[in-house]
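Supplementary Text 2. Reproducibility record for the structural model of the 289-residue chain.

All settings were left at their defaults, and a single model was retained for analysis rather than an ensemble. We include the record here because the model underlies the residue-level annotations in Supplementary Table 4.
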Amino acid sequence: MELAQVRYFLALCRTLNFSRAAEACNVTQPAFSRAIQRLEEELGGALIFRERTLTRLTALGLEMRPHFETMVEAAEAAHALAAARRKTAPRSLRIGLGPGIPATPITSAVAEILRVLPGTEIHFTEAPSGTLVDTMLADGLDCALLPDDAPLPERLNRWPLFRDNAALICPETHPLARHNQCRLVDLEGETLLLGHECGNFGDRLTQMAEAPLQTQRMRASASQMQELVRAGLGLALLSNRIVIAPPLATRDFVDPVLDRQVLLTAVAGRPVNQAAAGFMRLCRAQAFD
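Retained model, structure tokens:
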């Protein structure tokens, strides 16, 4: 399978017209049609249904389109990064992380930027969603990972990246550490530490609980919350994507399910440097677990 074939197919998806798609790809229609036919042969099925003036995607074509779009985005990101590597101007990548959102899921994209563009300065900023939005609009950040319930202005582009779920954090010696999963009923008699900077999982649980929970509010980051749990001040609900080190244990919180969609956001229409553009393309092309 050649990337040119994939590009031809995507052009045909946009136009649903062989002549216009061939013209857009700057090839003759016979060569264009042969490329589509070879692609269908390699995939073992028809991608396009064509009958007189009617052209539409088959079920296989509809299924393959998002995968092909991801392939082209990844290829374009690689080309852009390779071109940027030849430039010597200093580069930086400024990423905002919303409340309780870890950098763990995007480390592979950051690593690829540093591999292709060595010397790029990476800046992480952890702050409330509103602060990160204001900073982006003021050109203080290239992009930010924000929860989908954050109030976002129309000026921001947004792309869903992944979902994260609440996990219960407790000392390894705590009785709940012997559980495979934890539920609301397991928190009876326990102190739950709450913090707006940790993703609001705990606050959402207190609103859903029929009986009041024993809570303690803390103005603390996710890493600081782990220190408080380690000190025996209570338990915490954090993103299951945060890496937890001993002597703490993490257990999936399954009843009720507490999850959220995490978005990649950036100011629409604003030019960014090659490192930032490549990073955002890599994130959008990445398949998150």
